[in-house]
Amino acid sequence: MSLLTVESLRKSFGTLGAVNGVTFQVQPGEIYGLLGPNGAGKTTTISMISGLLKPDAGTVKIGGTAFWADPQRARRQMGVVPQELALYEELSGKENLEFWGRLAGLGPREAKARAAELLESLELSDRANDPVKTYSGGMKRRINLGCALLHRPQLLLLDEPTVGIDPQARMNILEFIQKLRAAGTAILYTTHYLEEAESLCQRIGIIDGGRILAEGTLSQLQERLGGDRLFVIDADFTNTVPENWGAFLQRFRIIQKSERQIIAAAIGTRDPSECLKDLLELPVRVENVSLKRPSLNDVFLQLTGRNLRE
After folding, report:
1. Which CATH code is given to the segment(s) 4-221?
2. Are 207 and 40 in contact (CB under 8 A)?
3. What is the spatial distance between Cα 143 and Cα 87, in angstroms, rounded to a whole number?
4. Are strands 78-81 and 31-35 parallel, antiparallel or unpaired?
5. For residues 149-174, b (16+ Cβ closer than 10 Å) or e, as one string?
6. Which of 55, 67, 228, 299 has the fewest CB atoms within 10 Å of its CB?
7. Which residues lie closer than 8 Å to 202 by C-beta, 6 or more apart?
């Protein structure tokens, strides 16, 4: 059974349709990446999943039960890590964890024991009694993550958990998240770092305009662009019009075009050598052609027409 099921979710603000029929599932022991540029509908979707917003239509099910049928039960099953730090800077890391543990319904003794356990797992035991205001950015992110785990949630919502920290701190957090997944936690993960999604996520949903445009494993998404046949053509494309290049657009799909480069996916199953011959015969002076496997960024560009950080 899916721990999280989102079905035909919709939410509008006035005339703005922020979320327009979003559907996906997250299984136990799975990291599902929800990727989209700013304004795509990610935050609104997460707000409805966590109960901060009520959907206009559609359902959110936690462990098979509709969220609004029993909100308290649903909240007990999930932990939420917001992008903005939800910490009290004057309190110590230990005190922050114990506080959030009590809010999650733990008794004093259980909250204290669980806080000590998480401090060790997060490698922060030596700083447990120091005020959070003295922590580095990466340490604050780890405590922020720990605050969502006091009640041992089966479902974890992670909204940009590594934003604004150094590479070593990111690696520590990502390793910890991998351990949570291996222990069976279902994780919904949003990020602006495509390399994180490529390495972490078992499945990825790309959202834009409030809709899921594509969903699947990284390999399945790459196959949308022709599998292993993505061509990078370097030339002077200033004032050129690909629509005028004979049958070019019948044989290739343009992923991205600039004045100096075109990235194109081959259409169909032709041999790469045949594709290369076609490209060398373009009515421009081709300087270089290279063949590469599509990246998640290439898929994202094709679907949304923009970079993830836009």
Report:
1. 3.40.50.300
2. yes
3. 8
4. unpaired
5. bbbebbbbbbbbbbeebeeebbebbe
6. 228
7. 30, 31, 32, 217
Which tens digit of pLDDT belongs to each residue from 283-308? 999 999 998 888 888 888 878 776 55
226-293 under CATH 2.40.50, yes or no: no
Contacts 24+ apart (CB under 8 A), 113-117: 114/150, 115/146, 115/150
pLDDT digits (tens, 9 = 90+) for 178-195: 999 999 999 999 988 888
Q: Which residue in 264, 181, 174, 172 sits closest to 226, CA to CA?
A: 264
Give the residue among 248, 214, 165 at the shortest CA–CA distance from 24: 214
* The two domains 4-221 and 226-293 share their CATH topology (first three levels equal): no
Residue spans of the domains in the chain: they are 4-221, 226-293
Gap between the Cα atoms of 76 and 104, Å rounded: 7
Pairing relationship of beta strands 186-190 and 16-26 according to DSSP bridges: unpaired
What is the chain's mean pLDDT, rounded? 91
CA 166 from centre of chain: 19
C-alpha to C-alpha distance for 24 and 109, rounded to whole angstroms: 38
